[in-house]
Amino acid sequence: MLRSVVSTQQWVFEGYVKYSKRNTYFTIPILDRVRMMIIPQSQLRVIYGLPETVLDAVNTNATLIQSPWTIWDHKVAPNDNNILANTIRNRITKNLAVLTPQIAVELERGFRREWGHSIGQWKTIHAWDSSMNLIAGAANSAFYGLPLSTITLPEIQKRLHDAARRRDGSNYLEAPCKNPSDQEDALQWCIEESYATGDPDHLDPMRIALRLVYLNDISTHSTSFTAANVILDLASSDPSLGYIKALREESARVLKEADGSWTRQAVSELKLIDSTIRESMRMSPFNSIGVPRTVIEPHGITVQQGNSTMKLPQGTIIGVPVAPIQYDEKFYPNAKEFHPFRFAPDAMLHRDISSLHNISENPKGSVTREKASVMIDESFLHFGFGKHACPGRFFAMNEVKIFVAHMVLHYDIEHLVEGRPKLKPILWLNAPIMGNFNVRVRKRDPVELRS
Ligand code: HEM
Questions:
Q1: Position in ligand 1 atom list of the atom nearest CA 387
Q2: Closest CA to 85 of 243, 11, 193, 232
């Protein structure tokens, strides 16, 4: 069992070849889980389509991210009546056009602060720490609005008070909102979604505050992990291949067409950047085993095991071999190599982007084809799978795309000659620890933006 701390990743890669490829389950002993049943990739759709009364995601994921200990209020996590998921799906995602300009402003400010603003001067940054600071600032501009400041309990109370005043009569929970607020941020939408439950308990100011803490918790690490991996993948790729140059050309063209300011529409035009982020996520998932679920059906479930069937009793924890799937040559030709434009539309690669002349070796096998970074399928599980797949991915990818575009336009990144620093596999996690994650960067004059 103790060996699982360092060997889980190796075991899951071995088991994938030995068992998953033959459509059979295998178990792995894991210190924090006792044992985990690893599902063959071919059964993903059937098993993850089972109803929630049979297969639990919410409490299993809460244990994974330890929210019962970090967020001690169970009405915030895990049982919040879907307030947070609805805030993300119905409000944040639908308002990306409103949020994009302020995210871009905050990212620009963050880059100047973290990466420097004197043209030509090299600076050493730590890929993880600096991504975390940049992403936390940008995301919170969307969560509480600009200018960034500390959000206090009295401020939340005031927002709640204003929201109540905009409604009629004593039974204000059910009354329609007469004057919608002009405040457009996650805090406001979270208050409105809390109203929509009809349960006054959800309008407790402390509870609203904790919900925002939780939103930060689940969004900041995952998004900055993704941004930091893109920095490291680009910094360690052969400069003669011209990847950064191509991304720079694309960013400059799109930004010029958008009259110099990032809009939601402009960000969606960043196809090469989008493909680069997806390829980086493919190669660096946070976990070798992911998408955990627990069988809660008292009679267990019967699954296909090779040519026969097998019973998984109540309490069985299942998981998906995320890393082996994302490194499977069957789905991704030359899977061990970073090919940033693997998922880009073919038409893009033939565009008049001069830096692309070297990039003819795009490994477009029969299976790999154009796919947006937010797209989930059975061979790309970075955002989970099924009904509980990440609802924040549209927000996250929008933010990381602006991050990368700003980075390549305004900074040079020194080539990491010693190669890509490795993540450390601990249990099922790929942790950004025990390595040198420093990168040298230099502010450049973005001449491409001048007409
Ligand atoms: C690149 C960044 C991100 C990655 C890689 C990521 C990944 C994930 C994964 C793997 C899950 C579990 C899915 C499953 O069990 O099937 C998840 C769930 C979730 N994520 Fe994200 N996430 C990211 C960013 C965000 C952001 C920015 C937000 C909020 C704005 C967010 C909100 C959530 C929520 C609320 C859930 C729980 C969904 C549910 O249980 O129905 N995530 N995410």
A1: 41
A2: 193
> In this predicted model, what pLDDT tens digit does every residue of 74-129 receive, in sequence order?
899 888 889 999 999 999 999 999 999 999 999 999 999 999 999 999 999 999 99
- Residue of 67, 99, 222 best suited for mutating to test ligand 1, as the one with most atoms within 8 Å of CB: 222
The annotated binding site for heme is made up of 390
C-beta of residue 449 within 8 angstroms of C-beta of residue 256: yes
Q: Work out which ligand 1 atom sits closest to the CA atom of 57.
A: 15
Higher-pLDDT residue of 70, 407: 407
Assigned CATH topology for domain 4-449: Cytochrome p450 (1.10.630)
Q: What is the 379 CA–ligand 1 centroid distance (Å)? A: 17
pLDDT digits (tens, 9 = 90+) for 245-257: 999 999 999 999 9
CA 388 / ligand 1 centre spacing (Å): 8
Q: Residues at the annotated binding site?
A: 390
**Residue 366: which pLDDT band, with cuts at 50, 70 and 90?**
very low
The number of residues in the chain equals 451
In 3D space, the residue among 210, 62, 61, 225 whose CA is nearest the CA of residue 136 turns out to be: 225
Residue 194 · residue 242 · CB < 8 Å: no
Q: What does the domain layout of the chain look like in residue ranges?
A: 4-449
Angle subtended at Cα 322 by Cα 45 and Cα 79, rounded to the nearest 5 degrees: 70
Surface-to-core class of residue 174, CB atoms within 10 Å of its CB (0-12 exposed, 13-18 middle, 19+ buried): exposed
pLDDT of residue 215: 95
Measure CA 184 to chain center: 23
Among 383, 394, 403, 430, residue to substitute to test ligand 1 (most atoms within 8 Å of Cβ): 383
